Amino acid sequence: MKKHNFSAGPAILPQSVLAEASEAVKDFQGVGLSILEMSHRSAEFTAVMEEAQQLVKQLYHLPDNYKVLFLTGGASSQFYMVPMNLLPQSGSASYVNTGTWSTKAIKEVSNFGTVKEIASSKDKGFSYYPKGYEIPEDSAYLHLTSNNTICGTQIKHYPDTNVPIVCDMSSDIFSKSIDYKRFGVIYAGAQKNLGPAGTTLVIVNEDLLGKTDRSIPTMLDYRTHVAKNSMFNTPPAYPVYVCLLTLRWIVAQGGLEAMQANNEAKAGLLYNEIDSNPLFKGVAASEDRSLMNVTFVLENKDLESAFLAACTEANISGVKGHRSVGGFRASIYNAMPKSSVQVLVDLMKEFTRTHG
Amino acid sequence: MKKHNFSAGPAILPQSVLAEASEAVKDFQGVGLSILEMSHRSAEFTAVMEEAQQLVKQLYHLPDNYKVLFLTGGASSQFYMVPMNLLPQSGSASYVNTGTWSTKAIKEVSNFGTVKEIASSKDKGFSYYPKGYEIPEDSAYLHLTSNNTICGTQIKHYPDTNVPIVCDMSSDIFSKSIDYKRFGVIYAGAQKNLGPAGTTLVIVNEDLLGKTDRSIPTMLDYRTHVAKNSMFNTPPAYPVYVCLLTLRWIVAQGGLEAMQANNEAKAGLLYNEIDSNPLFKGVAASEDRSLMNVTFVLENKDLESAFLAACTEANISGVKGHRSVGGFRASIYNAMPKSSVQVLVDLMKEFTRTHG
Asked: What is the total count of domains within chain A?
């Protein structure tokens, strides 16, 4: 029986995507080969890569100087590739620290230039999103993490600045519309809203490249992948294919406006229960709550194991909070049906009736 | 109808692997989740990673100080990660240049130390494997490419040296037994003998690490992945899973001895036809011929398109030679059944009967 999958990532994918992805492993579109054993230089796979790139451009309305790459190594590899490609040794980059992932990103910069942590929410356990900070005009870029999976915060308004924003959107990519013009680089590990683990989407404004005077290993230079349309070497073909299926699904659902409306409805349902149910309490500051990762705790910690057992009983999976913060986390990415959120909400009500 | 898949990579995988890999995309072992949407921290996926590592150790009889990593970025990323991790800035590394891939590997070294190209077969278009070269005793390592997919050469005897060998085995990993003690690092993009594109196997003798005094980005430091058992960040879960299925298949077939015997039989069948058929001629020097990639040309180039058409007609796919050398290439990796090689041989005979 299919579980209600609230995992933070790798995370739920649309059922129709999984069905088609399974079929392609047996035989890709009737060509007599599995997608796993097809040359990446074949006409069939070239079409997969090009359509995936085209759909990314379409969803974010990207002009030609914004290049779409499907790389590997996770967002964790972008933590060093961004400064390696954008930050001259004599330059400085500004970072806003909003949690574990920002902290890891900041750690990788000093090999390549100066890092300025211009704002942080560490003082309150990263439970809010900093606002109203000053951005030094001479920053090579401003680095933000749009959504923080562990504490469950999300940026609501990107700062108004001439400094190009580099944004780790791993956990809310394609969950809503954005204004691409604010961004110099957007990157996202695929395994939340976009596809399975194994590929990393990188959108880069190529006007920012080639300004560091640094000798960069071929595979780490964005220009290598831009020049070869993300096919310099063998790409992670199957993860890219599943991303394509997910992108098609997003378009078929009505695009980013539909994603956003649906995400707001699902998150509203769950936050409403957390706020009205006396047993539960939200973790993140109300105004910064994530629409993707809903974090909450039981006021009485002694009930935690009973609640987890009730979730398992109800076929709900993945709601245990991250090991670094505890409590609970319901990740409700694009592909999560509202009906599954309702199952969780109903369970919370029932749990309160029996344990309240 | 299933094609006879002679693609150089991504390449043929065992049919039983593809069937099980397809099923896991629908539901992984009855847990109610697809393998594509399961947390990499789940007990189920942790078991996948650990068994895959264990089988690699078992097949090559590796002791505890040889660590097995499933990374990303392809062999192309190892071209710079190897010197970054093993070569002190004041040190030198020796490289044998046997083709396109060695040439690319050599290009990445100079950022990190001195590179010595101690032997090369470029003088004859990389159609043979250099032998009898001197290896400087002070080399941090000796880099070899064991099998060259483009020209179809393969090393038959590794040199006797105290210098640790770093070997790109992308295209003949697990095709035969090796003596691990000669090697400091073995790496291989998965997409030939091991699995689909999207993961790179790296076997590293950890005694060689930590000697460069270089500041290495976290994700590029082998020690990061050794310390976290290849789970520092989200690994390419599905590609690793398909590698596990392929490793199990190798073991079930009788291990590396069985692979080698089968590979010798298949290659013998095809080379015998090339040598005895007046229309065809082998590309690589006889004594250096690859058991994995059989390269050949038609003596009369005017017949090329007719031969390719006959292959297509016979449901044979992927035999066109690499764009840089032309002619034909039949890649007959572990998973290629002898019966498919026989189909190609029969076609060559028939082609000669009708066009000879």
From this structure: 2
Q: Are residues A233 and A263 in the same domain?
A: no
* Same structural domain, A205 and A299: no
The answer to whether the beta carbons of residues B168 and B185 sit under 8 Å apart is: no
Considering only CB atoms, A3 lies closest to which of B33, B77, B220, namely B33
Domain boundary among A210, A235, A253: A253
- Let me know: does B277 contact B349? Beta carbons within 8 Å: yes
Query: Looking at CA atoms only, how far is residue A207 from chain B in angstroms?
Result: 25
Q: Name the residue range of residue A309's domain.
A: 255-355
Q: Is residue A3 part of a domain?
A: no
Asked if the Cβ–Cβ distance from B37 to A198 is below 8 Å, we say no
> Residue A260: helix, strand or coil by DSSP?
helix
The answer to whether residue A123 is catalytic is no
Answer whether A53's CB lies under 8 Å from A100's CB. Answer: no
Q: Catalytic annotation on A249?
A: no
A211 in the same domain as A165 = yes
Are A220 and A77 within one domain?
yes
- Residue B7: which of A11, A27, A37 has the nearest Cβ? A37
Which pLDDT tens digits describe chain B residue by residue (356 residues)?
Answer: 899 999 999 999 999 999 999 999 999 999 999 999 999 999 999 999 999 999 999 999 999 999 999 999 999 999 999 999 999 999 999 999 999 999 999 999 999 999 999 999 999 999 999 999 999 999 999 999 999 999 999 999 999 999 999 999 999 999 999 999 999 999 999 999 999 999 999 999 999 999 999 999 999 999 999 999 999 999 999 999 999 999 999 999 999 999 999 999 999 999 999 999 999 999 999 999 999 999 999 999 999 999 999 999 999 999 999 888 889 999 999 999 999 999 999 999 999 999 98
Which of B67, B172, B192, B288 is labelled catalytic?
A: B192
Phi-psi region of A153 (alpha: psi -120 to 50; beta: other; left: phi over 0): beta
Q: Is residue A63 part of a domain?
A: yes
In tens, the pLDDT along A322-354 reads 888 889 999 999 999 999 999 999 999 999 999
Chain B residue numbers with beta carbons less than 8 Å from the beta carbon of A191 are 234
CATH of the domain at A283: 3.90.1150.10
Same domain, A228 and A283: no
Q: Looking at the whole model, is its pTM more than 0.90?
A: yes
Contacts of A34 in chain B (CB under 8 A): 13, 18, 22
Complex prediction ipTM: 0.98
Whether A130 maps to a domain, the answer reads yes
Cα→Cα distances B114→A103, A215, B88, B111, Å: 35, 15, 9, 8
- pLDDT bracket for residue A280 (50, 70, 90): very high
Strand-pair category, B280-282 with B92-97: unpaired
Q: Å from B219 to nearest chain A CA?
A: 6
Look up residue A197 and give its two tokens: 């683990």
A181 shares its domain with A273: no
B chain contacts of residue A13, beta-carbon cutoff 8 Å: 34, 36-37
Alpha carbon A293 to chain centroid, angstroms: 11
The shortest CB-CB distance from A77 to any of B40, B198, B219 is to: B219
| B192: annotated active-site residue | yes
Contacts of B37 in chain A (CB under 8 A): 5, 7, 10-13, 18, 196
**Are A233 and B76 a contacting pair at CB < 8 A?**
yes
Residue at which a domain ends, from A211, A228, A253: A253
Q: Which of A172, A192, A221, A288 is catalytic?
A: A192
Q: Do A36 and B25 touch (CB under 8 A)?
A: no
Q: Are residues B130 and B230 in the same domain?
A: yes
Residue of B2, B15, B27, B37 best to disrupt the A interface, most CBs of A under 10 A:
B37
Q: Do residues B13 and B337 touch, judged by C-beta distance below 8 A?
A: no
Residues B224 and B325 in one domain: no
The CATH number for A90's domain is 3.40.640.10
pLDDT for the residue B75: 98
B237-253 vs A237-253: helix axis angle to the nearest 10? 140
